[in-house]
Amino acid sequence: QLIQSGTEVRKPGATVKIACKVSGYTFSAYYIHWIQQAPGKGLEWVGLVDPEDGETIYTEKFRGRVTMTADTSTDTAYMELSNLRSADTAVYYCAAARAEQGFSFWGQGTLVTVSS
Amino acid sequence: DVVMTQSPDSLVVSLGERATINCKSSQSLLYSSNNKNYLAWYQQKPGQPPRLLIYWASTRESAVPDRFSASGSGTDFTLTISSLQAEDVAVYYCQQYYRSPYTFGQGTRVEIK
After folding, report:
1. Which residues of B touch A43 (CB under 8 A)?
2. Which of A43, A99, A106, B78 could bridge to B49 as Cys pair (CB 3.0-4.6 Å)?
């Protein structure tokens, strides 16, 4: 139900934009969250976008470098991360959260590698 | 930020035996207006995205086997696998969604003895 765009390789300082295509439910019904998982590490919440009105909340670590958007015409959410550094190398997941019931549906993940 | 701390970091259990994972939050996750704890549990197998097992601290997600159960309130929570199966080998995470940032525990790796 959540299909993400493919693997990306970028140089330090570049920008990456990841897509998360939703199907099987009304796109605007659930918040879309983005979660980072560095190689061999745990899960870190990056932020969320409300597809209904575009409102966003970002965690402080990524604020200023991350932009999350939602396109209701294509039922697709996006996460753009700029000024990439090697520490951003990770799998990024999108997840849809039913109201107050945790992150119910997950994308397959997108590997972003930042290397010179 | 709400800090989530799981214990143990790893667990080795025999097939058919019980596995218990603990999760402690630095603040209460109990929302007084509806008496619900905003705590979820996830299972992540290698190469796969996480899978929601439990929400509201003790409500099993649909299609989750009933050998998975969870309990707790306030700041202390537990996930129990009553009879460990080979397919339960995974890393398990707790997560609070009481307030942003929606933090996760560090994960507990469950293996077969």
Report:
1. 42, 44, 50, 93, 95, 104, 107
2. A106
Q: Min CA distance, A33 vs chain B (Å)?
A: 10
B64 in contact with chain A, both atoms CB, cutoff 8 A: no
Q: Given a cut of 90, is residue B95 above it in pLDDT?
A: yes
Going by C-beta distance under 8 Å and a sequence separation of 6 or more, which residues neighbour residue B63?
Answer: none
> Are B97 and A97 inside 8 Å of each other by CB?
yes
Running DSSP on this structure, what letter comes out for residue B15? T
Q: What is the pLDDT of residues A71-113, one digit of tens each?
A: 999 999 999 999 999 999 999 999 999 878 999 999 999 999 9
With vertex at residue A20, the alpha carbon angle to CA A19 and CA A25, rounded to the nearest 5 degrees, is: 150
Q: What length does chain B have?
A: 113
Predicted pLDDT at A34 = 98
Interatomic CA distance for residues B91 and A109, integer angstroms: 17
Residue B98 DSSP symbol: S
B102, B2 contact by CB (below 8 A): no
